[in-house]
Structures are given as structure tokens and as C-alpha cells.
């Protein structure tokens, strides 16, 4: 993996972690201190963030598969 790919992978992982932290904080806020009439808004926001987190994680999995395939192609004996 070259340095550019490594940088993008680290940035991608960092973004995933940021989404996880935001979801965790929003969940805590909904349980502890959010006004009663904000439940629908919290649910919508959590749903949006969860969807984006899923898409980021799925893209990370695809990225890993592409990197592995590229590495295997480079080092095939023959």
C-alpha cells in the first residue's frame, strides 16, 4: 500500500470513528438530558448517522478487498 492509499485509509477510519462518537453522544443525550418533545428529531438524526456509518464501513470493507486483490496480483509467482 502506498502512502496516498494509507493516508486515505486512515482518514476513512477516522471518519468512521467520528460517526460512532457522534451517535454515542446523541444516544446519551436522548436518554439523559434531551427535552421530551425532541425524541422524533433525535431518532431522525440517529437514523441518518447510522446509515452513513454503515455506508462508510461497507466502503472500507470493499477498499480492503481491493487492496488485498492488488497485493495478491503483485506477488503471484509466475
* Count of individual helical segments: 2
Major sheet details: none
Number of strands: 0
Low-confidence stretches: none
Radius of gyration: 18 Å
What descriptors fit this protein?
2 helices, mainly alpha, elongated, 78 residues, 0% strand
Describe this structure as you would to a colleague.
With 78 residues, the chain is mainly α. It has one domain (3-74). The chain has 2 helices and no strands. The protein has helices spanning 3-32, 39-74. The longest helix has 36 residues, at 39-74. The protein is elongated, with a radius of gyration of 18 Å.
Itemize the secondary structure elements and their pairings.
Blueprint lengths: L2 H30 L6 H36 L4
Helix pairs in contact: 1-2
